[in-house]
Design a protein that fits this description.
Elements lengths: L7 E4 L6 E2 L1 H14 L7 H6 L5 H16 L3 H4 L4 H14 L6 E2 L3 H10 L4 E4 L4 H10 L8 E3 L12 H16 L10 E5 L2 H10 L2 E5 L6 H6 L4 E3 L4 H7 L5
Parallel strand pairs: 1-4, 1-6, 4-5, 6-7, 7-8
Antiparallel strand pairs: 2-3
Length: 244
């Protein structure tokens, strides 16, 4: 792929910028146990990441029931909305206990900032949790836009979040007297086939990271424009690009 055409970057968050697996799994299991379900392994929970917190929790509940072989009468759980609200509140309070940035992620973001290359996050993760993690890690200022499912009607692979992030970036571009960046000059970076499909649906170039949480077979089958192991490899491509 020709990186000289890239003028803006869009990132997924979990499995891309930060390794959030331990805090996600612990929060899911705390929720399961609080409402009478059996806990799951971290590996099983992370398989469910990528389509939003609601689907993550629903899948985890179903998996727990299947493993425990309990009947609905034995569990007597409240409505899902109550369980989900409890999960979001718990995770928000425990979001950065074992979460770590991936190697070179901050260096990459600082390089983009120095080069005046706008970056945004488009995640299916609850916005308040993503924002809390970024604030605690002092990364918020490095992103023009942070999009979560609360700002859109549809989550990835729908392109709505990406289109909103690009519009917010271009609003800043125009306010600074700079030309807007067309979709084909953006790069969507993700670890899931939903990220790659969302990028294609939005008209961007796509970059798959195989060291993240997403299913590797589905990720590669989505045919990204470029495949890397982890996000820090983008530093080399940016530094060696004549555009930058």
């Amino acid at each position: 792929m020709d990186f000289t055409t890239i003028r803006g970057l869009l990132f997924d968050f979990d499995g891309v910028i930060a390794n959030t697996a331990k805090d996600i799994a612990r929060s899911v299991n705390a929720t399961l146990e609080n409402f009478g379900f059996d806990p799951l392994s971290q590996e099983q929970i992370i398989i469910f990441v990528g389509n939003g917190a609601e689907r993550l929790l629903r899948r985890s509940i179903v998996a727990s029931i299947q493993l425990s072989k309990k009947t609905p009468e034995e569990i007597q759980a409240p409505p899902f909305e109550e369980i989900y609200a409890w999960y979001v509140d718990y995770y928000r309070k425990h979001a950065v206990e074992q979460t770590e940035l991936y190697l070179g992620a901050k260096d990459l973001l600082e390089l983009l900032s120095i080069q005046d290359i706008p970056a945004a996050i488009v995640s299916n993760k609850p916005h308040e949790i993503t924002h809390a993690i970024l604030q605690q890690m002092e990364l918020s200022k490095l992103f023009v836009s942070i999009i979560g499912p609360e700002q859109t009607n549809h989550v990835k692979p729908d392109p709505e979040g990406l289109l909103l992030a690009m519009e917010q970036i271009n609003q800043r571009q125009r306010a600074a007297g700079k030309p807007s960046i067309p979709p084909e000059n953006f790069l969507m970076v993700g670890d899931s086939h939903t990220d790659i499909e969302a990028g294609k649906n939005a008209g961007t170039k796509t970059c798959a990271l195989i060291n993240g949480f997403g299913n590797k077979e589905k990720l590669l089958a989505s045919e990204p424009d470029v495949t890397l192991f982890m996000v820090c490899e983008l530093i080399v491509h940016i530094q060696h690009s004549t555009h930058f």
